[in-house]
């Protein structure tokens, strides 16, 4: 009898184990193609396309999952922010409603062009943990506004993550989600100089100069 019980228990354990991957909460997926780190400063750059690994990528998800971390609900009446700080940086003639990240993301998805490939660029700016949060936030958002919103007419979502709040050792960082399309009342033409490997080099140089002058 004991042998039979053990055998049944082992079989039951195998069945539970086999089912676990199917019922477990899915892991967070990646939604961008990395172009690598900056040459002389802490940070990295990537391109966000409208498809990734045969999956459709929506701006609603791209922005939402940086604001609402750990797989939180993006489809409710509001996003329950888990990041440290969030701000939309708009060009001069963008609609006022787009100050709300959800409104900006919704407009980008609604005005997507048939066959559109390029959605956004992601820039990740990293900082040592001893750097004060108000200081790195001001540096990052002013940089994003000047070089992308004001000079290029591109709306930007800035999000500050502080991993130590969750007991993690990763560096504090700011994500900049920069639209590839200019926003003047509605979404229009594309800005190409910030994309791909040339974009990584350009943005890295701009950020290095910004820190040298203001950091």
Give short descriptive properties of this protein:
36% helix, 6-stranded antiparallel sheet, BirA Bifunctional Protein, domain 2, two-stranded antiparallel ribbon, 215 residues, alpha+beta, 10 strands, 25% strand
In short:
By secondary structure, this protein is α+β, with helices and mostly antiparallel strands. It contains five helices and ten strands; from the N terminus they run αββββαβαβαββββα.
Structural class computed from helices and strand pairing: alpha+beta
Question: How much strand content do the residues show?
Answer: 25-35%
Spatial separation of the terminal alpha carbons: 73 Å
Mean pLDDT reading: 86
The CATH class designation is Alpha Beta
Rg for CA atoms: 21 Å
Q: How many individual β-strands? A: 10
Helix and strand succession? HEEEEHEHEHEEEEH
**Strands side by side in the biggest sheet:** 1-2-6-8-7-5
Q: Largest sheet, described in full?
A: 6 strands, antiparallel
Helical coverage, percent range = 25-40%
Backbone shape: globular
Q: What CATH architecture label applies?
A: 2-Layer Sandwich
Q: How many domain regions?
A: 1
Low-confidence stretches: 1-27
CATH topology, by name, is BirA Bifunctional Protein, domain 2
Number of helices: 5
Topology:
Layout: H1 2-23, E1 33-37, E2 43-49, E3 51-52, E4 55-56, H2 59-67, E5 85-89, H3 101-110, E6 118-127, H4 133-150, E7 156-161, E8 172-179, E9 181-184, E10 186-190, H5 196-214
Antiparallel strand pairs: 1-2, 2-6, 3-4, 5-7, 6-8, 7-8, 9-10
Helix pairs in contact: 2-3
């Amino acid at each position: 009898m004991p042998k039979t019980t053990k055998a049944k228990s082992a079989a039951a354990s195998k069945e539970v184990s086999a089912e676990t991957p199917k019922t477990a909460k899915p892991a967070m997926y990646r939604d961008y193609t990395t172009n690598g780190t900056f040459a002389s400063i802490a940070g990295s750059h990537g391109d966000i396309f409208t498809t990734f690994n045969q999956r459709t990528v929506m701006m609603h998800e791209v922005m939402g999952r940086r604001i609402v971390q750990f797989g939180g609900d993006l489809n409710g009446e509001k996003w329950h922010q888990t990041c440290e700080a969030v701000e939309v940086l708009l060009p001069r003639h963008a609609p006022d409603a787009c100050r709300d990240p959800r409104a900006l993301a919704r407009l980008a998805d609604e005005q997507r062009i048939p066959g559109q490939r390029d959605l956004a660029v992601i820039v990740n700016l990293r900082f040592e943990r001893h750097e004060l949060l108000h200081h790195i936030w001001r540096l990052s958002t002013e940089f994003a506004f000047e070089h992308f919103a004001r000079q290029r007419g591109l709306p930007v979502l800035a999000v500050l993550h502080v991993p130590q709040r969750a007991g993690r050792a990763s560096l504090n960082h700011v994500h900049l989600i920069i639209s590839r399309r200019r926003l003047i009342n509605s979404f229009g033409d594309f800005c190409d100089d910030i994309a791909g490997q040339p974009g990584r080099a350009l943005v890295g140089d701009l950020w290095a100069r910004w820190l040298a002058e203001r950091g």
